[in-house]
Write a structure and sequence with these properties.
Layout: H1 15-24, H2 27-33, E1 35-38, H3 40-46, E2 50-52, E3 58-61, E4 70-77, E5 82-91, E6 97-103, E7 107-111, H4 117-125
Parallel strand pairs: 1-7
Antiparallel strand pairs: 1-2, 3-4, 3-7, 4-5, 5-6
Length: 126
Amino acid sequence: MRSKFSGCWKASKQPRKQRKYLKNAPLHIQQRLIRAAMSEELRKKFGKRSMGVRKSDKVKVMRGEFAGKIGKVNLVDRKRQGVYIDGIERNRRDGAKAFVRIHSSNVMIMELSSQDKARLKGLKRK
């Protein structure tokens, strides 16, 4: 475990090496790791099971305290591997509202953002 990040690293059984890989990965690789399952309609339409989460996608929370809630993705945090969703917030002690970070594996994409035309074009090609 000499270098911070190795592009040719394949896999390891050791959790410490897996955590190190995720923590030290460059942001363009971390972006590819933030993926979520797609709804049944989207799976049939595009022929894919999962996809990267982007800002302004409509998602449904599947696990945790906010399970069942649907909202629009407000922010995708690559460094902390989470998404922040509109309408899912927690009250802080001073009375202010704070967004709750939800891991991308715990959400399901219900509707894709229509802002990114290249993304939709690439999906239709396949």
